[in-house]
Write a structure and sequence with these properties.
By secondary structure, the chain is mainly beta. About 5% of the residues lie in helices and about 45% in strands. Strands 25, 26, 27, 28, 29, 30, 32, 33 and 35 form a nine-stranded antiparallel sheet that branches. The chain has a nine-stranded mixed sheet with strand order 39-43-41-42-52-49-48-51-46, with no helix packed on it. It is elongated and about 105 Å long. The two termini are about 25 Å apart. Residues about 1-20, about 545-555 and about 575-580 have low confidence and may be disordered.
Length: about 600
């Protein structure tokens, strides 16, 4: 759990050292005797050699200066004429003239380019670029991390296709894109977009002009796969699983649509068995300590973190233990009900008792022997539990176990913190979820002065943010269920915001994030007072709408948490995260490199790393 004060201090530090790009990207044509310099760029002298112009090869010993606070890529064209000794081209700083980088512009021919990347620390800096050998042109451009696109669809059955943000139309070879005035769509149409995850690319098919096939290419133009469709009612689908990069998609034949969808990665939950063994309970002393439930409800923990029994002994009942020789036995009086947690059809519940002391039902089925095995049904899985109910006072137990089978889930595993809290937002569309047994979900429904109220909900769906409470450090998966969710709408007072994508918050957002005061251990919603604060997709935060503004929600630095029943909360996790580490790296020549590359690299967030 991260210290909120430390994080916010870091955010303020980042803000305090940032500066703006002084000039736009530019290119200088050095094939002109009087080069045109963009605003903010000035020519100067290198102090050793006077500049020299050649009409066929450009300028040598030409020096220009510009100011930047950004990471920039500097590119020069190579030239074979008048090779110089020593430094051919270099970049120096303005403070002491140190050489920051060199560019080998010498060449056997007057073609080709060479690049070097200046990695900024965020402070404004004057840079001097020295063209030692003859040079045809110099280009300076910001190194901007590409924006990844994950889910979009382009309708090409229109003369003016609408391209989503991050997608750019590109030309297909020497052919011009051509639109057919009906359902056939566009021919020779190309788009370019950046991906940083696995995506499924679907191209609408059309046979209007046979043989006009397209292809998907990598950033450098290398073909990845051909697109071959011969029907107007089908489609071609390809799953891209390669490295993050810019993809180029060329629709050679007439194409009615392009669709890109992120591939949902399923997590495999391994088979696991939770056991409550009173016979040898010394292996887990909490089982014995918690099995003393008289005329009340209670929970009993298993050998697995986060899986508990729920016992209801409120009907003048009891559930406790006694020792018979060297063996421990749990006993329950008539009417005691135990909820055993299950997740999926096929899970197996096993109950074992001493001989002739099995007066109970398991899943509604009467036990007929010392060991009863019950196979979980679909209905049980939707409920999230099966019941063991005592039908007489001669009901005793050695152990209960539940084997939860392995399954695949699109849901991210939720790790509750050391106090048993986490925030969560479902990213599964058209699906209703609920917490597994032993875990409770809440939403924020009211703000009064400096207090926020959490109200329990039982079912939630896509995009609905909730706060989960369960066993400390438990790893849980929400359970797919049926029926309608019961999360109140914003108009009904719900001020919980679910994040279906990473959300960057600012002071002006009027937002609150859940965190714990590291000094006092007190949990609450803390007001965002800096920039670069990220609430990740799948998490949630609190925002005060206009109707509660009169209660000074924006003025409180911290909102204390209470439950709707008046109980106070402690130890809720922080959902604050810094911006994620970059997934793409470039070397100092601006070339994309792999994760195993050794040397100085620039991340796609502009940060400098030594690997």
């Amino acid at each position: 759990m991260k210290n909120l004060k430390t994080l916010i201090t870091l955010f303020l530090l980042v803000i305090g050292t940032s500066a703006s790009w002084a000039i736009d990207d530019f290119e200088i044509d050095l094939m002109q005797e009087n080069p045109t310099l963009p605003a903010g760029v000035e020519a100067t002298d290198d102090g050793a050699h006077g500049p020299n112009f050649n009409g066929g090869h450009g300028w040598a010993n030409y020096v220009f200066k510009f100011n930047t606070s950004e990471t920039v890529k500097i590119t020069m064209q190579k030239c074979a004429y008048g090779a110089q000794n020593g430094i051919v081209a270099c970049v120096k700083d303005a403070v002491n003239g140190n050489v920051l980088g060199t560019l080998a512009t010498q060449s056997d021919a007057c073609d080709g380019e060479v690049s070097w990347t200046y990695v900024s620390d965020g402070n404004a800096q004057d840079l001097y670029v020295h063209c030692g050998a003859y040079c045809h042109k110099v280009k300076v451009e910001k190194v901007v991390a590409p924006t990844a696109v994950k889910n979009f669809e382009i309708d090409l059955k229109t003369a003016t296709p609408v391209l989503p943000t991050g997608v750019k139309q590109i030309s297909y070879s020497d052919y011009g894109a051509y639109y057919h005035q009906d359902y056939h769509g566009w021919c020779w149409y190309g788009v370019e977009f950046y991906v940083d995850s696995e995506v499924e690319i679907t191209i609408g098919g059309c046979n209007f002009q046979n043989g006009y096939y397209g292809y998907l290419a990598s950033e450098d133009g290398a073909k990845i796969v051909d697109i071959t469709n011969d029907k107007c009612d089908g489609s071609f689908t390809y799953k891209y699983t390669g490295e993050p990069q810019k993809l180029k998609l060329y629709c050679g034949q007439y194409c009615p649509s392009i669709k890109v969808a992120e591939v949902k990665k399923e997590a495999t939950v391994e088979e696991r068995t939770a056991v409550w063994n009173w016979k040898t309970a010394s292996a887990n002393s909490s089982i014995m300590a918690e099995t003393n439930i008289l005329a009340r409800t209670g929970t009993i923990h298993s050998n697995l973190n986060g899986i508990v029994l729920i016992v209801d002994a409120t009907k003048n009942g009891r559930f406790d233990t006694y020792k018979s020789g060297n063996v421990n036995i749990a006993q329950m009086s008539e009417g005691v009900i135990i909820k055993v947690p299950v997740q999926h059809a096929g899970d197996v519940v096993t109950v074992n008792s001493p001989a002739n002391q099995f007066n109970y039902t398991v899943g509604g089925v009467k036990a007929t022997g010392t060991t009863t095995v019950y196979n979980v049904t679909e209905e049980d899985a939707l409920n999230g539990f099966i019941l063991i109910e005592a039908t007489g006072n001669n009901a005793k137990l050695y152990y209960i176990s539940v084997k939860q089978l392995s399954f695949k889930s699109e849901l991210t595993k939720i790790k509750l913190n050391s106090a048993g809290w986490a925030s969560f937002t479902s990213l599964m569309s058209s699906t209703t979820l609920k917490c597994p047994i032993g875990t409770t979900a809440y939403v924020a429904t009211d703000v009064d002065g400096e207090t926020v109220t959490l109200t329990e909900v039982t079912k939630f769906t896509f995009g609905q943010g909730v706060f989960l409470k369960g066993d400390p450090n438990a790893e849980i998966y929400p359970v797919v269920t049926d029926g309608q969710f019961d999360v109140p709408s914003e108009s009904a007072g719900n001020i919980t915001v679910g994040c279906i994508e990473d959300i960057e918050l600012f002071t002006e957002s009027g937002a609150y994030v859940v965190a714990t005061n590291s000094a006092t251990g007190e949990a609450g919603f803390f007001r965002v007072t800096g920039n670069n604060i990220i609430v990740p997709a799948g998490k949630a935060y609190l925002y005060g709408p206009a109707e509660v503004d009169s209660k000074n929600i924006y003025d409180a630095k911290m909102l204390k948490i209470v439950f709707a029943n008046g109980e106070e909360a402690t130890g809720i996790e922080s959902v604050i995260a810094t911006k994620p580490a970059p997934t793409v790296f470039y070397n100092l020549s601006g070339q994309k490199v792999g994760k195993n590359y050794k040397g100085v690299v620039i991340g796609n967030d502009g940060s400098k790393y030594v690997k």
